[in-house]
Design goal:
The chain has eight helices and no strands. With about 200 residues, the chain is mostly helical. The radius of gyration is 23 Å and the shape is rod-shaped. Belongs to the tetraspanin (TM4SF) family.
């Protein structure tokens, strides 16, 4: 249950907190990345629910509930491994998608540097702490925060941020997978202990 709550909290923090929340404030946002976060939150909710039923099975000494708990943990473990593999395989695609979104906004600003697109590109610069996508000459006239390093390339910053977030997801995933393995081991030990006790009686 605690692991499930941790996954929910982590997914919501990535979605609504920090830099990634700023990406979501505009219609042009990396949809596949956010879909992955929603799946992560859903998996956390499922883990919490499964943990609750596991507690009920242990309290009632029900082999059926504990067996179902083991089966659910096995499915969750397989899903975690699959999601982790896809996350690292799809990292390059996620980076390219996010960079293309910024390039589209940049091009829109260059064509018409007024209105909503001005606010949007400024929002990205503020979130990424960067300015533009090229050399100093290309950054001239762009709406950038005062404390931003002008030489910082936004395309590079996007890659760095996604790399860092995926590493966090990987670390959390490994920790949760380890907890899931221990849960499966202990559930089977408990199930066997309950069966042996009933056989003795």
């Amino acid at each position: 249950q605690l692991a499930g709550l941790a996954v929910i909290a982590f997914g919501l923090w990535l979605r609504f907190g920090g830099v990634m929340a700023d990406f979501a404030s505009d219609k042009k946002s990396p949809e596949y990345f956010f879909m992955g976060l929603y799946v992560l939150v859903g998996a956390g909710a499922l883990m919490t629910t499964v943990g609750f039923f596991g507690c009920c099975g242990a309290a009632r000494e029900s082999q059926c509930l504990i067996g179902a708990f083991f089966a659910c943990l096995l499915v969750i473990f397989a899903a975690e491994i699959t999601a982790g593999v896809f996350a690292f395989i799809g990292k390059k695609v996620a980076i390219q998608e996010a960079q293309k979104i910024y390039e589209d906004i940049y091009d829109d600003y260059m064509k018409n540097p007024v209105g909503k697109v001005n606010s949007t590109i400024y929002h990205y610069h503020l979130a990424l702490q960067c300015c533009g996508k090229g050399n100093m000459e290309q950054q001239t006239g762009l709406p950038c925060p005062e404390n931003t390093q002008k030489a910082s390339n936004c395309l590079v910053e996007i890659q760095n941020i996604i790399d860092a977030n995926l590493h966090l997801v990987g670390i959390v995933g490994i920790a949760i997978a380890g907890t899931t393995i221990f849960g499966m081991i202990f559930s089977m030990v408990l199930c066997c202990a309950i069966r042996n006790t009933r056989d003795m009686i």
